């Protein structure tokens, strides 16, 4: 990998393509890096700094289609660190595209049963399976270091002019970082991509200082059936968005966030004076599992 990490993100207009009365712009974190896409680079930054200080191996967790696992593998290789990915579920006969790519970046994959994987969430169960020189990154990069790294997302560009900032939410670590670095009065809106994400608000609050707790909105209506679930309406929205604006999205995260943004604007959630910034968090390789031709872009 010769691409420098990170390249700078850019802000592009969106409302003109859709003839919207509220101003909507996009923060293109997807342009930061082709694999360590967008928000993952920011979330990993502090963990990587710590690992480099102690020459530690990066160890992290995820399912067979985890953007986080792949991003960790790519970032580790780039930074000259070893990486281990603990994968949920027995080793399949055919590895997913994501896992093959993670392995190609030098990540050692260890498969554990779903039952054993659940147990790993208790830190006291970890040392038994890990080498002593590991730096453990929680699933999805969730945690203070992850949120701390994500604070830099809004600082790279002129984001102070926006009244609202919206992004897709998995663990909420990225949103938490942006809540911390937002200017006073700016409203943060998270679009959970998981169904029944009831504990999410608490998990995000956990990463926030007292005065920022609950200073954000979570809108639970745009999960399209749950994690990595999709509908025809979502896919055709993504194609329409691309044909109008040239902005590619993925069906797991950003497609849902952009759909939500457009829907909220049309339904009067924002006033005409509001200015919305949609954060494109990257993750385009999520589309690799779609049948070829489903999307008009790759
Ligand atoms: C991982 C990911 C997210 C979720 O980030 P969290 O910090 O876990 O909320 C959002 N968008 C994309 C493209 C991702 O890959």
Structure description:
It is a single chain. The chain has helices spanning about 15-20, 40-55, 65-80, 95-105, 115-120, 145-150, 175-180, 200-205, 230-245, 255-265, and strands at about 10-15, 25-30, 55-60, 85-90, 110, 135, 165-170, 185-190, 215-220, 275-280. It has about 300 residues and is α/β, with parallel strands linked by helices. It has a six-stranded mixed beta sheet, sandwiched between helices. Helix 2 crosses helix 6 (about 145-150) and helix 3 (about 65-80) packs parallel to helix 4. The two termini are about 20 Å apart. The relative contact order is 0.16. The mean pLDDT is about 90. The chain binds pyridoxal-5'-phosphate. Pyridoxal-5'-phosphate (PLP) binds near residues 68 and 254.
Topology summary:
Blueprint: E1 10-13, H1 15-18, E2 23-28, H2 39-53, E3 57-62, H3 67-78, E4 83-88, H4 97-104, E5 108-112, H5 114-119, E6 134-137, H6 144-150, E7 164-169, H7 173-181, E8 187-192, H8 200-206, E9 217-218, H9 232-245, H10 254-266, E10 275-280
Parallel strand pairs: 2-10, 3-4, 3-6, 4-5, 7-8, 7-10, 8-9
Antiparallel strand pairs: 1-2
Helix pairs in contact: 2-3, 2-6, 3-4, 6-7, 9-10
The structure holds pyridoxal-5'-phosphate.
Pyridoxal-5'-phosphate binds next to helix 2, helix 3, strand 7 and helix 7.
Assembly status: single chain
Total number of helices: 10
- Quote the beta fraction: 15-25%
Say how many strands there are: 10
Rg calc:
19 Å
Shape: globular
Question: Which ions, cofactors or small ligands are bound in this entry?
Answer: pyridoxal-5'-phosphate
Tell me the span between the first and last alpha carbons.
20 Å
Structural class based on helices, strands and sheet pairing: alpha/beta
Largest β sheet strand count, sense and barrel closure: 6 strands, mixed
Give me the side-by-side strand order of the main sheet.
1-2-10-7-8-9
Question: What is the helix content?
Answer: 25-40%
SSE pattern: EHEHEHEHEHEHEHEHEHHE
Mean pLDDT: 92
């Amino acid at each position: 990998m010769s691409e420098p990490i990170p390249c700078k993100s850019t802000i592009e207009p969106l409302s003109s393509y859709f003839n919207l009365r509220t101003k909507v712009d996009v923060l293109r974190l997807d342009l930061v890096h082709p694999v360590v896409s967008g928000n993952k680079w920011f979330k990993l930054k502090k963990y990587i700094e710590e690992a480099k200080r102690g020459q530690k191996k990066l160890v992290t967790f995820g399912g067979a289609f985890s953007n986080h696992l792949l991003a960790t593998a790519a970032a580790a290789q780039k930074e000259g660190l070893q990486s281990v990915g603990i994968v949920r579920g027995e080793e399949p006969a055919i590895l997913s595209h994501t896992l093959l790519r993670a392995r190609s970046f030098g990540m050692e994959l260890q498969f554990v049963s779903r039952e054993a994987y659940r147990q790993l969430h208790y830190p006291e169960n970890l040392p038994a399976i890990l080498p002593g020189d590991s730096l453990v990154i929680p699933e999805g990069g969730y945690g203070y270091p992850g949120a701390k790294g994500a604070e830099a997302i809004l600082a790279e560009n002129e984001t102070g002019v926006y009244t609202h900032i919206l992004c897709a939410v998995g663990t909420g670590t990225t949103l938490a970082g942006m809540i911390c670095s937002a200017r006073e009065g700016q409203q943060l809106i998270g679009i959970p991509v998981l169904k029944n994400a009831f504990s999410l608000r608490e998990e995000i609050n956990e990463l926030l200082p007292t005065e920022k707790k609950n200073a954000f909105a979570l809108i639970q209506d745009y999960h399209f059936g749950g994690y990595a679930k999709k509908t025809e309406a979502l896919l055709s929205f993504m194609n329409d968005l691309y044909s109008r604006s040239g902005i590619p999205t993925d069906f797991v995260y950003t497609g849902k966030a952009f759909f939500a943004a457009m829907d909220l604007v049309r339904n009067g959630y924002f006033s005409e004076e509001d200015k919305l910034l949609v954060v494109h968090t990257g993750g385009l390789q999520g589309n690799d599992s779609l049948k070829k031709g489903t999307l008009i872009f790759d």
